[in-house]
Amino acid sequence: MSDARVASLQSAVPTLRVLNDPADLAHYGGDWTRRWTPAPLAIALPASIEEVQATMRWAYAQGVAVVPSGGRTGLSGGAVAANGELVLSLQRMNRVLGFTAADRLLTVEAGIALEAVHEAAREHGLQYPVDFAARGSCSIGGNIATNAGGIRVVRYGNTREWVAGVKLVTATGELLDLNRGLVKNSSGYDLRHLVVASEGTLGVIVEATLRLTDPPPDTRVMLLALPSFDVLMEVFQALRARLPLEAFEFFTDRALHHTVAHGAQAPFESVYLYYVVAEFASAGEAGEVALLSAFEYCMEQGWVEDGVISHGDAQAAALWRLREGITESLAPHVPYKNDVSVRVSEMPAFLAHTQALLAAEYPQFDVVWFGHIGDGNLHINVLKPSDMANADFVIECERVTKLLAAALAEHGGSISAEHGIGLVKKPYLGSTRSAEEIAVMRGIRRALDPAGILNPGKLFD
User: Fold this and answer.
1) Is the dihedral of CA 88, 90, 93, 99 positive or negative?
2) 456 pLDDT higher than 80
3) Please, which of 318, 321, 372, 400 could form a disulfide with 377 given CB 3.0 to 4.6 Å?
4) 53 and 106, same domain (yes or no)
5) CA–CA separation, 168 and 304 (whole Å)
6) Cα end-to-end span (Å), the chain
7) Do 41 and 170 share a domain, yes or no?
8) What DSSP character marks residue 417?
9) To the nearest whole number, what is the mean pLDDT of the chain?
């Protein structure tokens, strides 16, 4: 431990596990963006709230910046430590702390993986309904810090709806116990909701109390091939009106190309331009009749060219792999990711506007579209040509992102639907939030972190 500050930290918190091997610094200092070179001071791995508090008190006294870290699966640079910050990883704080059946509340440490929360809920005959492909590696603390959404928002909403309470360690080491799992609590500002989507800039999330709900119903999965972008929302509205939708996801032929190349099975003999994966509750003969009726209606309208309906869990999983495997299949191609949202009612106009914009501005790039269309969230991934320097690629993508941000402002949308702002989207925050809103956000941040040591440079400077 060559840096005197690392030795000072170890002296101040003797029980704290601290790493500063170069391999550990590289591993814990970045996230999935891969655009910044990790350069943290050290990695702190607390095992208790008390160790988090002691670490923050030391950091505040020493003026050392701190980057809270969960599963580091973020896509906006929110967990990057590139300027000598102390990474505070919550991965050792990964326990289930308790369950109360009457309240249907599960209390967990912030470092627990989303998949482990799902398993804990199932042990009590219930479910935690927030779900997405990174479930095995992302952490609950990170989910809360970005208000993660995923594939079932159309049915259950975002993470925010399922957070009943949060324990937060502030920049000065104080512990705040926010809302304490109450259903009704009209006692002033609900600081719990300030913490959701705060990206580690207001404090370190150390514990969460999560709402659980009834176990998921029996479901069926449908994959539909569509002839054009224009009919996408027509299909969504038709299925939503006729079936109890659990999820409605969209992807293009280019997305299918990459997932099949990555090992997924092609669903049809022919290749189509656009696809939808829909999951819906299925109950007996009546559900089967409704399902077939909805499918036939969409075919009769000319909105669907082909389709398949799952029979059994294995086939349902294979159909979902076509959607959930996209991000992993694109990773080797160094994608530049856009994660945007508009109101569902605004989606047709925004889709037309954006499709024309990107076709004009990105003719030389492979652009892969997919997303949670049922909740107005669209992911646009631009793949770097193998012969193009990464710096030149980023410059070109950022030029077009400015145009995309302007389109979002015109349609009342957001530059970040569920990935957070971090470092990547910081230049475009003004397209989503007014100057007055940003000024209020800055004031809140100063109130909770007067020295500016918590995740500096993220969200705004």
Assistant:
1) positive
2) yes
3) 372
4) yes
5) 49
6) 30
7) yes
8) S
9) 94
**Residue 354 confidence (pLDDT) above 70:** yes
Same domain, 97 and 192: yes
Both 197 and 245 in one domain: the answer is no
Largest CA distance in the chain: 73
Using the 3D structure, point to which of 295, 327, 359 is the last residue of a domain: 327
The domain spanning residue 319 has which CATH number? 3.30.70.2190
Q: What is the helix, strand, coil percentage profile of the chain, to 5?
A: 40, 20, 40
Asked if the structure places residue 287 within a domain, the reply is yes
Q: Where do we find the tokens 């991000």?
A: 327
Q: Is residue 424 part of a domain?
A: no
For the cut 90, the answer to whether the pLDDT of residue 288 exceeds it is no
Tokens (6 digits) for 239: 């299925």
Same structural domain, 408 and 273: no
Q: What is the CATH number of the domain that holds 97?
A: 3.30.465.10
Domain final residue, candidates 297, 327, 357:
327
Q: Which two tokens stand for residue 368?
A: 């892969």
Residue type, 404: L
- Of the chain, the percentage scoring pLDDT greater than 90 comes to 84
**Would you say 57 and 204 are in contact if contact means Cβ atoms under 8 Å apart?**
no
Model pLDDT for residues 409-449, shown as the tens digit of each residue: 999 999 999 889 999 999 999 999 999 999 999 999 999 99
Domain hosting 108: range is: 1-216+431-461
Residues 256, 124 share a domain: no
Question: The dihedral of CA 320, 71, 457, 395: what is its sign?
Answer: negative
Question: Could you give the CA distance from residue 267 to residue 320 in angstroms, rounded to a whole number?
Answer: 11
| Cβ atoms < 10 Å from Cβ of 447 | 10
Asked if 425 contacts 75 with a C-beta cutoff of 8 angstroms, the reply is no
Task: Check which CATH number belongs to the domain holding 368 and give it.
Answer: 3.30.70.2740
Give the residue-averaged pLDDT of 237-248.
93
**Which among 149, 151, 345, 309 is positioned nearest to 233, based on CA atoms?**
345
Torsion of CA 404, 409, 413, 419, to 10 degrees: 50
The rounded distance, in Å, linking the Cα atoms of 111 and 133 is 18
Give the count of domains, the chain. Answer: 3
In a domain, 361, yes or no: yes
Q: Is residue 426 part of a domain?
A: no
- Buried b / exposed e over 407-445, threshold 16 CB at 10 Å, is bbeebebbbbbbbbbbbbbbebbebbbeeeeeeebeeeb
1 pLDDT band, cuts 50/70/90, is very low
Spatial separation of the C-alpha atoms in residues 107 and 433, rounded to whole Å: 33
Q: Is it the case that residue 146 has pLDDT exceeding 90?
A: yes
Do 23 and 156 lie in a common domain? yes
Burial readout 352-361 (b: 16 or more C-beta within 10 A, e: otherwise): ebbeeebeeb
Residues 101 and 162 both lie in one domain:
yes
Question: Which amino acid is residue 8, in one-letter code?
Answer: S
